[in-house]
């Protein structure tokens, strides 16, 4: 049961729905609100990093720290917008935009080899050396027609990932 | 997430106290089409992101500790007055009479227990027998004070050395419900307040072992105490709740292996509460034990089933962790609970970095393997 003081009104739901481009149904937004309140234990109106990390399934994820930076201080409306890329109604373009944002940690619209190396390091940890990572990345970049000094922008990501049929969906449990 | 896969625990898992979590999570990287590694394969982090988002939206661990109150039924004009009458009866008639019953029980108990404890100091066997009986009696008074309707199935526990009893844990009243039938010795987290007082005075007489969750060295001391207790012929049978924390009676979290490596028979007990009148789950994050008890005492009844199940022993070639999971399976099936692959103590601490490292390792290996393919 929601333990924050405010209940969602119909107006609130519609506002949130508009903000996330109607990727979630009204019922899903209500469920997400219940989940938001459940995670936001101190009722501060946003979910702190501690509260996210109290979900063990999230804490063991290799990119959790990266996502925490994106989730920091989001209120409910922004929280739903964040998750909108994972809705089955989201377009491939929206999903690729999300992935691009994860890579582009400084938000300047460009992803350099360094950014890609950092994500790769999150995913592989100590099981591959930094050298090996650089080697592999340089190799696949060159095979794809880039160099290790190239900057990738959103349209590059669209081109590379666009026709792979991205599977990036979560189901919001609706009571 | 069924437990039908054979759980293999590598030796590196032993210090983690739990079986391989990887067996529970479908690893999507395994189903990836093999082939030469391309840029899009490195950039496509969607499986990892999906797992993270899935965890944010709904996760099995938080579900274990969610109180699910029973559906409200007082929602129309005929039922609402009925419900109001019910409230009046519960709070103004039942509750006071229950308090009286409980107070009576305390008086009877204390007036018998204290003399027995003090006067029969020399005659230990008789004293212990009487104290056991008195504790069972006191627990019956407790159960009566919330009108506990408990149905016991299966053969009653017998007093024998080299056996421990394990049960799933929903609330501290589990202990009281089981204790009214058999005086168990118990291992418990030391609580503050009046509960702690009870623990250190009366429960001492049936034999109790204390521990502190936060102290790591405590584990060895406790393990030693457990072993000593089980060997003693005169000691009461030991009751252990291997989950280590209260779960909401819809799920079971992983069992700690402590009870399963004592080299004795393990007798499983399954407890299932019927939520028809009240939800007996003690959500220790949300309410104190006193509030919880008051909630029980102002409801109509606490209905539950207790099954005493067939004693199990460690099979040849089975590790204690596998044994624990096997017993958890038996209890979960009997009580209709779903199993989740999480350690209950994650309520209080973060998961060990080993789990993340396992994911990283499998990703790294798959990446290197695909690199070899031309």
Automatic annotation (TrEMBL), chain A:
Top-level division of the source organism's lineage: Eukaryota
InterPro entries in alphabetical order: EF_Hand_1_Ca_BS, EF_hand_dom
Example of a GO MF term: calcium ion binding
Domain EF-hand stretches: 27-62, 91-126
Name recorded for this polypeptide: EF-hand domain-containing protein
Native source species: Carya illinoinensis (Pecan)
UniProtKB/TrEMBL annotation, chain B:
Lineage, opening ranks: Eukaryota, Viridiplantae, Streptophyta, Embryophyta, Tracheophyta
Residue stretches spanning the membrane: 75-93, 100-120, 132-152
Main localization, broad class: membrane
Keywords from the UniProt entry: Acyltransferase, Lipid biosynthesis, Lipid metabolism, Membrane, Phospholipid biosynthesis, Phospholipid metabolism, Transferase, Transmembrane, Transmembrane helix
Gene Ontology CC terms, in alphabetical order: endoplasmic reticulum; membrane
Gene source species: Carya illinoinensis (Pecan)
Molecular function via GO: glycerol-3-phosphate O-acyltransferase activity
Region annotation Disordered: where it falls in the sequence: 1-29, 349-374
Cellular location(s): Membrane
Pfam families: Acyltransferase
PANTHER family for the chain: GLYCEROL-3-PHOSPHATE ACYLTRANSFERASE 4, ISOFORM D-RELATED (PTHR23063:SF2), PHOSPHOLIPID ACYLTRANSFERASE (PTHR23063)
UniProt-recorded name of the protein: Phospholipid/glycerol acyltransferase domain-containing protein
Gene Ontology biological-process annotations: phospholipid biosynthetic process; triglyceride biosynthetic process
């Amino acid at each position: 049961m929601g333990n924050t003081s405010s209940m969602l009104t119909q107006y609130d739901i519609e506002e949130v729905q508009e903000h996330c481009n109607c990727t979630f149904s009204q019922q899903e937004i209500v469920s997400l609100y219940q989940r938001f309140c459940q995670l936001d234990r101190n009722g501060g109106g946003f979910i702190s990093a501690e509260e996210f990390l109290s979900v063990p399934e999230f804490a063991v994820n290799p990119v959790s720290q990266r996502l925490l930076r994106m989730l920091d201080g989001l209120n409910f409306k922004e929280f739903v917008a964040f998750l909108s890329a994972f809705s089955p109604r989201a377009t491939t373009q929206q999903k690729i935009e999300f992935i691009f944002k994860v890579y582009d940690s400084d938000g300047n619209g460009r992803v350099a080899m360094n950014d890609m190396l950092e994500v790769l390091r999150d995913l592989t940890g100590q099981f591959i050396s930094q050298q090996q990572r650089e080697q592999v990345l340089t190799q696949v970049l060159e095979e794809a027609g880039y160099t290790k000094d190239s900057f990738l922008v959103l349209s590059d990501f669209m081109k590379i990932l666009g026709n792979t049929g991205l599977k990036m969906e979560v189901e919001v449990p609706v009571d | 997430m069924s437990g039908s896969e054979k759980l293999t625990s590598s030796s590196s898992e032993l210090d983690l106290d739990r079986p391989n979590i990887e067996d529970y999570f479908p690893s999507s990287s395994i189903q990836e089409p093999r082939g030469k590694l391309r840029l899009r394969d490195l950039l496509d982090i969607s499986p990892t992101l999906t797992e993270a988002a899935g965890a944010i939206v709904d996760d099995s661990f938080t579900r274990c500790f969610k109180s699910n109150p029973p559906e409200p039924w007082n929602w129309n004009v005929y039922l609402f007055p009925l419900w109001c009458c019910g409230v009046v009866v519960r709070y103004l008639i039942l509750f006071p009479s229950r308090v009286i019953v409980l107070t009576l029980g305390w008086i009877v108990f204390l007036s018998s227990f204290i003399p027995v404890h003090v006067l029969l100091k020399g005659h230990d066997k008789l004293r212990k027998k009487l104290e056991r009986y008195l504790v069972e009696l006191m627990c019956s008074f407790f159960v009566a004070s919330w009108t506990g309707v408990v149905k016991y199935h299966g053969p009653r526990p017998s007093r024998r050395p080299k056996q421990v009893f394990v049960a799933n844990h929903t609330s501290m009243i589990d202990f009281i419900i089981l204790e009214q039938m058999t005086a168990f010795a118990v291992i418990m987290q030391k609580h503050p307040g009046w509960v702690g007082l009870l623990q250190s005075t009366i429960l001492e007489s049936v034999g109790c072992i204390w521990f502190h969750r936060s102290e790591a060295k405590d584990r060895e001391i406790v393990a030693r105490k457990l072993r000593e207790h089980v060997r003693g012929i005169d000691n009461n049978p030991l009751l252990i709740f291997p989950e280590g924390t209260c779960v909401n009676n819809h799920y079971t979290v992983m069992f700690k292996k402590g009870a399963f490596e004592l080299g004795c028979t393990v007798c499983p007990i399954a407890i299932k509460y019927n939520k028809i009148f009240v939800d007996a789950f003690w959500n220790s994050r949300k309410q104190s034990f006193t509030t919880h008890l008051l909630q029980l005492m102002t409801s109509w009844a606490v209905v539950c089933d207790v099954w005493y199940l067939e004693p199990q022993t460690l099979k040849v070639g089975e590790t204690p962790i596998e044994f624990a999971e096997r017993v958890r399976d038996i209890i979960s099936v009997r009580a209709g609970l779903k199993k989740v692959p999480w350690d209950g103590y994650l309520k209080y601490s973060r998961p060990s970095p080993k789990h993340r490292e396992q994911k990283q390792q499998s990703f790294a290996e798959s990446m290197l393997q695909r690199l070899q393919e031309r």
